[in-house]
Amino acid sequence: MPSAAERLASNLNMGAFSQATELKKRLWFTLGALIVFRIGTFLPIPGIDPNSLQAFFTQQAGGILGIFDTFSGGALGRMGLFALGVMPYISASIIMTLLQSSIPSLKNLKEQGSQGARKRIQITRYATVLIAAIQGYGVAVGLESLQNTGGQVVIEPGLFFRFTTVVTLTGGTIFLMWLGEQITSRGVGNGISLIITAGIVANLPRAVVSTLELGRTGAISSVFILLLIILVISLIIFIVFIEKGQRRLVVQYPKRQVGNKMFGGQSSHLPLKINTAGVIPVIFASSVLLLPTTLTGFGAGSESGAFAFISSYLGRGQPLYLLMFGAMVVFFAFFYTAIVFNPEEQAENLRKYGGFIPGYRPGENTSKYIDYVLTRLTVIGSIYLAFVALLPELLISRYSIPFYLGGTSLLITVVVMMDFMIQVQSHLFSHQYAGILNKTKLKGRNR
Q: pLDDT digit string (tens) for 394-405?
């Protein structure tokens, strides 16, 4: 007969093994789902001439199509099954966030708990299908109108090509949306964010090879490449430092007596992030400013004064472009922070549960104080976003470096990887906590 100590050790080892196996299964599922995504980026839609398409995307590498191609992992440049990526889902999510602050019926869903959340997710899915269908039709029409030195991009234009393109691209987006939800529920991390990051990181080897090729041909010096590596590492450290930065407001809860027992009296914190808006401001600013550059690419050869002005002053790396880019990042940082964080709602929640910030009366005074602190933090956060977004732009424009992992891409990658590591750690901590509970229960039984 095994002793009590042996039974305890055996149960703990079996529990730890099963918990480690669960985490391993989640990691393998996440990896397998991302591999499926990468395979889908290489499956082309029917009716496309790949040589003509490649020639066109080479001309449009600096426009908004180049940015979307980076987010889709190169699928848009190859016009693959996942060419639209998860951008329609992100657009639908952003639209839902904006509408919730203005439409009462959507705002009420937020107050219905898990049931309201399921309804919001369902509405977001329907909106994703609609946006993907519209974008797919726009892509089909745009492809039919493209013709360059390599020939016409679409082999047989017509209604059948448009129908198949819309169905294929919309189906690819729906599958990615489902795949992202599966990663979130059965894997580790946020599925949609990991799909975007996988697409960005997939372009990194090409960027490294292109940069080394520039060094081999003498276009840039080896010392500059070394400085570039140091700069990238420094930027990553800087992003991690700022993203983890918080201002914690002390929240005090009064004591209350229930029967003969005294409850409460403890203090906690209300954390306010330095960068509450995340990477959304940079994405918005990039999309708005790169659109004119893309239009000039479609209007190549035109003698219109508008196209000439855009090419001269609003091209990537131009002083006016950099100035407007920085200003838009700052504007959207304040705009999106005001949408996702409501000081009045936070103050009302504190008052509802009996909490207060020392030195400020609950209600309006607390709301004003939270808004004051959040505004100062957003100033720092917007400057940080503008700096990280503009520095790679300067390198791209001045030294013609294929810096795919820059600006928005670098921010998304670092932030998503931080969230991924935090979730892995939370799984490990929960397993350790479960092991401690099992150990405590077994000891209690032995007694």
A: 776 666 565 555
Q: 275 is written with which tokens?
A: 């960068």
Main-chain phi, psi angles of 101, to 5 degrees: -85, -10
Residue 286's nearest CA partner among 339, 318, 332 is 332
DSSP 86-141: THHHHHHHHHHHHHHTT-HHHHHHHTTHHHHHHHHHHHHHHHHHHHHHHHHHHHHH
DSSP bridge partners of 248: 271
Residue pair 211/402 in contact by the 8 Å Cβ criterion: yes
Q: How far apart are the first and last CA of the chain?
A: 18
Q: How far apart are CA 259 and CA 273, in angstroms?
A: 39
104 C-beta neighbours (distance < 10 Å), count: 7
Q: Are residues 285 and 389 in contact, defined by beta-carbon separation less than 8 angstroms?
A: yes
Token digits of residue 199: 């697409």
- CA–CA distances in Å: residue 239 to residues 33, 148, 230, 242, 386: 28, 41, 14, 5, 12
Structure tokens at 219: 């276009």
In this structure, whether the domain defined by 26-203 belongs to CATH 1.10.3370.10 is answered with: yes
238 DSSP 8-state letter: H
Q: Rounded CA gap, 362 and 343, in Å?
A: 12
For the stretch 210-252, pLDDT in tens is 777 777 787 777 787 788 888 888 888 898 899 888 888 888 8
Alpha carbons within 13 angstroms on the beta-carbon side of residue 68 total: 27
Residue 426 CB neighbour total at 10 angstroms: 11
- Which amino acid does the sequence have at 242? I
Burial class of residue 248 (count of CB atoms within 10 Å of its CB; 0-12, 13-18, 19+)? exposed
Token pair, residue 119, equals 């309804």
Model confidence at 59, in pLDDT bands (50, 70, 90)? Answer: low
pTM here is 0.76
Contact 81, 117 (CB under 8 A): no
Alpha helices, DSSP H, located in 244-314: 280-298, 305-313
Distance in angstroms (rounded) separating the CA atoms of residues 23 and 139: 40
Q: Is 43 left (phi over 0), alpha (psi -120 to 50) or beta?
A: beta
pLDDT confidence of residue 302? 47
Residue (of 75, 62, 67) closest to 36 by Cα position: 75
